Amino acid sequence: MDPRPLRGAALASVLLLTLAACTAAVPEQPLDPEVLLASVRSARESAPPHSPLTLAEAVARMRAHNPAIREARAAWQAAEAVARVRTPLPNPTLSLGPLLLGGADILSSGDLGVSAALGWAVPLGNPRAAQDDIHRVRSAAALAAAAAVERGAYLGLRRDYAAAILARDRAAARTGLGETARSAVDVGRRLAEAGQATAVDVRLLELDAERAHAEAIASEGDADAGRHALAARIGLAAQHIQTPDGSALPALPTRVPSLTELESAAVGNDPQLAVIRADYVVAEKELRLQVIEAMPDFEMGLDFENEAGAVTLGLPFGIELPLWDRNQPGIAAACAKRSEVRVRYSAALQRLLADVASARARLVAAVNAHEALVGRVQPASQRTLAAARSGLDAGSIDALRYLEVLRAEREVAVDVLAARIAVYAAWADVEDAAGIPLLRFPGEPSTGPAAQSNTEEN
Length: 458
Description:
CATH architecture: Up-down Bundle
CATH class: Mainly Alpha
Distance between the termini: 103 Å
CATH topology: Outer membrane efflux proteins (OEP)
Shape: elongated
Helix content: 55-70%
């Protein structure tokens, strides 16, 4: 029986099996822009179940629809998918072919033999476990990055939520000032008709009213911009957001935390520091892998030859001699990467402490300015208004003069609101610097050193 057809069939079978093993059944998943656009629009148009928007609803929507959070979670899920798959063993190599027999007349000879070889490189130092460790810590680093993005988005949401409420209050205060200015114009015109005011007086009142109207329009624009910023943060169309009233704002603490408290909270909780620490673990694991890869592979195999019925078996073993290439570039790059991450952490700490100190200084200044307005200027304006009202009742001042005092009192109220807005913004800056919530919104648990009730000096 001629063995050549059998040898040909065996060779063809090996090739087919090899090709089949190289084919991965991964289904296609085309990107359909129209379908995705419709999904995004549907999510943006889904109004919250309650109106006005509560902070709890805003947080829930943000976690589900904020684009930065979704991207960070997808990056973590991609890293986690790799970490769940163990690094496989290296594939063996198979070589199979004919041996042409026949001496000098080899081209015309019909005598054939078979040569087959099976080889396998066995890595030393267990690089598979080192690679699995890298995949695992990369997944942990991606999770830390996702947590940092979500923490930053949450702090930003708190800022946007409070800013939207305060912007609406400021717009209402500016509208009130405009109404007072228009009332002064009407009174001025009646006094001019009675000969008790000049045309210049009326023109000045009209100019003041127009300025107040322009300021009210600008404040309405700021309130609308604040609503849009909040909507973008939670992935909702702005027209579906009804801004809550001032009762949804957190109460301002009675004290500013000390610099030591804030520094301790920042170093222990800052999400960016956590990200860099996770990156350092990755860099350390990558260095360990580069050191392992400097070790040569141990190679072994099995040779088979059949020459005209003479069967030969061989068991070759070999190892690369690492005389010159010991993966020096890879180890050097990994060492430099680890040093770079260490410097990043030190630089981040330096920036963090500077940001915390600067943010606290701005907060103290904003609190002092607000307290001065509330404790001194506003009571003085209210006393002046009371005196003007008494003078109007007694006939010692006219209505125009009273409206001027009333407008001044309302301007002071606007200044107090602006100072209050500055205090909330300064608290938000401190929260961003410290990396944790410090103010306590209604219904929230105590989260930081600012939620204490004692009255230490600033």
